[in-house]
Design a protein that fits this description.
Blueprint (H helix, E strand, L loop, with lengths): L4 H14 L4 H4 E8 L6 E2 L1 H14 L4 E10 L2 E12 L2 E3 L2 E3 L3 E14 L2 E9 L1 H7 L6
Parallel strand pairs: 1-8
Antiparallel strand pairs: 1-2, 3-4, 4-7, 5-6, 7-8
Length: 137
């Protein structure tokens, strides 16, 4: 039984907010993850590692879904991501002091056979880094 694409994406973000994503149930084994400035990564293991890396540096991540649109096999979601960054290296910058942030992002997913099969993201990294005093405003 295949989950509705919008429900699939909602389940993914609800799991992320709980810190307990069921990657096997929600994510295709061959997912392609498109991130800015790097080559696409393929495979559930790499996708899981990327998400777990974010969860480690922002364990109190909150994902508020602002818009959720579906068309065929694509689902677009606009979210506000907020939390407390714990410090360390992130997005190429060393952030020495932990602190709160809140930024909007847009994610697009391609769904195949009831699972997330491809992912693209548009992030506002500059706003996040300014809020964390990693770069000047």
């Amino acid at each position: 039984m295949h989950r509705d694409p919008k429900r699939l994406v909602t389940d993914f973000y609800e799991g992320w907010a709980r810190g307990a994503i069921d990657f096997e149930a929600l994510v295709d084994a061959d997912i392609v993850n498109h991130q800015p400035d790097v080559e696409p990564a393929r495979g559930r293991d790499l996708f899981t590692a990327a998400i777990e890396g974010v969860m480690a540096v922002v364990p109190d991540s909150r994902w508020d879904v602002l818009d959720l649109l579906a068309d065929g096999d694509r689902v677009a979601v606009r979210v506000t991501w907020s939390g407390t960054f714990q410090g360390g290296r992130f997005r190429g910058f060393e952030i020495s002091v932990p602190g709160p942030f809140s930024v909007e992002q847009i994610h697009i997913y391609r769904v195949a056979e009831g699972k997330l099969a491809e992912h693209w993201v548009v992030r506002d990294d500059l706003a996040m880094l300014v809020q964390l005093d990693a770069v000047g405003s």
